[in-house]
Amino acid sequence: MPSGNPPAKTGSIAVPPPSTTPTLSAKAAPLLSRPPARRDMRRGPTAADAIHRDLRAEIVSLKRKPGEPIAEKQIAEAYGVSRTPVREAVLRLADEGLIEIFPQSGTFVARIPLGALPEAGVIRKVLERATVRFAAERATRSQIAALHACLEQQREVDAEGDADGFHQADEAFHAQITEMAGYPGFWGIIQQAKVQLDRCRRLTLPVPGRMRTVIAEHEAIVEAIAGHDPDRAEQSLIRHLDNLQITVDDVRNAAPLYFSGSLTDGAALPDGAP
């Protein structure tokens, strides 16, 4: 596994040093120096769902860094439950490729697998191209107004420098387009497919000017949808997805310890993969 030396910085990208995963014979280090505040949760599936949701959000947002250990005992204490629902949540996250479990060593946040990015990019691009065309054909005045409201929210969080808020506003924007298309179920498929791409995106949002660039790309998409022009809407979306390639390449070079494998493990990154 990679050494614990901090990665070099590239350009204006400032990346926090990644955690280092110990060797398989090592004992996992404590997750936190101080356990988080205790939260009362009911036992059973509801607790497992809540823990899964929270851990997933923390991993995707990079609040839990690639290679960071997961301490199931501390999580159970924080939620006031036994380790059973915690283990269930951890296993679900392992199935999603967000957690790695090493017998006799420990459980860790998975690094971002470069080999999985090409397929994820293709799935996202195919589905979003279809939904944006349908949205342009079917959009109502109230739906277009809702998209403009999403844009305004993005401008507000950009002005505040709130990367987390911007990510949420960005997700709401794309989800709204699938609703307008008449295929809201597509968004769940897209979210599952692009989870590793989202982790890459969270590394690019702190880049100065990046959020403003995304807003401008979103504005072009909204303008095409409002004009009921499916071809222009699709082309605007393609340009938006294609532009993500440059920033993720920069981040990958700046933070190599956040990634595992290489693009040779799979197909070459297609246009529009992040």
The count of domains is 2
Structural class from helices and strands?
mainly alpha
Mean pLDDT: 81
Terminal CA distance:
25 Å
Identify the overall geometry.
globular
Q: Rg from C-alpha positions?
A: 20 Å
Widest sheet: strand ordering: 1-2
Do you know the CATH architecture of the largest domain? Up-down Bundle
The CATH topology name of the largest domain reads: Four Helix Bundle (Hemerythrin (Met), subunit A)
Strand content: under 5%
Total number of β-strand segments? Answer: 4
Give the topology, please.
Elements: H1 45-60, H2 72-79, H3 83-95, E1 99-102, E2 106-109, E3 112-113, H4 117-138, H5 141-160, H6 163-181, H7 185-193, H8 195-204, H9 210-226, H10 230-242, H11 244-254, E4 259-260
Parallel strand pairs: 3-4
Antiparallel strand pairs: 1-2
Helix pairs in contact: 1-3, 2-3, 4-6, 4-7, 4-9, 4-10, 5-6, 5-9, 8-11, 9-10
What report would you give on this structure?
The chain has 274 residues and is mainly alpha-helical. It has 2 domains: 1-110, Orthogonal Bundle (Arc Repressor Mutant, subunit A); 116-265, Four Helix Bundle (Hemerythrin (Met), subunit A) (Up-down Bundle). Helix content is 58%, strand content 4%. The chain is built from 11 helices and 4 strands; from the N terminus they run αααβββααααααααβ. It has helices spanning 45-60, 72-79, 83-95, 117-138, 141-160, 163-181, 185-193, 195-204, 210-226, 230-242, 244-254; strands spanning 99-102, 106-109, 112-113, 259-260. The strands form 2 sheets. It has a two-stranded antiparallel ribbon with strand order 1-2. Strands 3-4 form a two-stranded parallel sheet. A hairpin with a 3-residue loop joins strand 1 (99-102) and strand 2 (106-109). Helix 4 runs parallel beside helix 9 (210-226). The radius of gyration is 20 Å and the shape is globular. The two termini are 25 Å apart. 34% of the residues are buried. The model is unreliable at 1-15, 21-37 and 264-274 (pLDDT under 50).
